[in-house]
Write a structure and sequence with these properties.
Strand content: 15-25%
CATH superfamily of the largest domain: Glycogen Phosphorylase B
CATH class of the largest domain: Alpha Beta
Structural class: alpha/beta
Shape: globular
Distance between the termini: 55 Å
Length: about 375
């Protein structure tokens, strides 16, 4: 393909999908000599999209507007997009996002379903396509368009540099709290079916509190986050900052931390992009697609196990034959996930304790050698 000066990337999924497009954007910017790159994302992921590098403009799709006045939103979006781009790359295989890609780009690349009943017309109309593969990590799915563009790339998950002001705010806060070294504990997710049960979470926090290092509990300002904020036990080494950091400040806080303990959510992927030590608690989520990407090894988890290590990552799952089902809770209704009840807090805390002990011993060896 020729050099493209105006590129649209369509990502109509969750915050994690948007964040994990950073590597694709970085490679496009480098290989096409700083083109104008715009995004089309769902409105509720705008704050993440707004932190991505090399982005000129962000179009948003609102599901609220869809339900209230669908045709007006579609008309306005199409007017903004129609044939405005040399190349459109669609990372999601939904019919709507494929149509946006076809309308926007003079050349088009899109993910499509393997099911020919759903994708036959997409194959006919798109210039290039690839099959969205839920047995491959989302990072690798996002990078597939580069193969079609004949661009060589590294399988790295790029991080995001935040404004220096956010870092200074966090450093001042840590100084006020008299915190030097700390680990992040992130108990919340966007959906309740992915959250570690409160009784087990409290037990885990109590065990972490005894390890002699500060535990900073993080979260946003959603209803789920604020409920959890009230539930966090008050303990000497536990600092509850749920709802008290902006997204930019969270990136800075994560970068300053020693590691991450918590659920499989955007914050886990942020820690992975910063090459942090990760202890991730997984319920029904598909590991092959959503486990933390390990940059040094350039791989993710490939099979379900109650416990596994790779590189800087430790994963915990339930020892059940149904794990990981990939459903939104046991009944696929965003309700309870029984598997999360089967992961023992002591299993998690023992691994964290073992890592901290090894880290301390390594530090003592270095000091003695010096």
């Amino acid at each position: 393909m020729k050099k493209h000066r105006k590129i649209l990337i369509i990502i109509q999924r969750s915050n994690g999908d948007v964040f994990l497009s950073a590597s694709l954007i970085e490679e496009l910017n480098k290989n096409f000599n700083s083109p104008k790159i715009d995004l089309l994302v769902n409105e509720d992921t705008f704050s993440v999209a707004n932190l991505l590098p090399h982005i000129s403009y962000i179009h948003t799709f609102s599901y609220n507007k869809k339900y209230k006045n669908s045709w007006l939103q579609e008309k306005q979006l199409v007017a903004k997009l129609f044939r405005k781009y040399d190349l459109s790359i669609n990372l999601t295989s939904s019919d709507r996002s494929v149509i946006y890609s076809l309308l926007a780009g003079k050349k088009t690349i899109s993910a499509i379903e393997k099911n020919n009943r759903k994708s036959w017309w997409k194959k006919l109309l798109l210039d290039y396509y690839y099959f969205f593969d839920d047995s491959r990590h989302i990072l690798l799915n996002n990078l597939k368009s580069l193969d079609l563009l004949k661009i060589n790339y590294q399988k790295n998950q790029y991080s995001i540099e935040v404004p220096s002001g956010a870092t200074q705010n966090v450093l001042r806060r840590l100084k006020d709290l008299k915190v030097n070294q700390f680990i992040i504990f992130h108990p919340s997710t966007q959906y309740e079916y992915k959250i570690y049960p409160q009784n087990l979470r409290d037990e885990l926090i109590e065990q972490l509190n005894k390890m002699g290092i500060k535990i900073i509990v993080t979260g946003g300002n959603t209803e789920i986050d604020l409920v959890i904020k009230k539930q966090i036990p008050s303990l000497p080494n536990v600092i509850n900052l749920i709802g008290e950091t902006s997204l930019e400040e969270y990136f800075a806080l994560s970068k300053l931390s020693l590691g991450y303990i918590g659920m499989d959510t955007l914050n886990m992927h942020i820690a992975a992009s910063q090459n942090k030590r990760i202890f991730a608690i997984f319920g029904p989520t598909n590991l092959k697609m959503w486990s933390p990407w390990e940059n040094q090894l350039k791989l993710c988890a490939h099979e379900d196990k109650p416990f596994q290590n790779y590189g800087n990552v430790t994963l915990f799952q339930a020892d059940l034959s149904c794990v990981a089902c990939g459903k939104a809770g046991c009944n696929d209704d965003k309700g309870t996930s029984i598997c999360l009840n089967k992961i023992k807090p002591k299993t998690i805390s023992n691994e964290v304790k073992h890592w901290l002990l090894n880290r301390k011993n390594e530090h003592l060896i270095r000091v003695s050698m010096d």
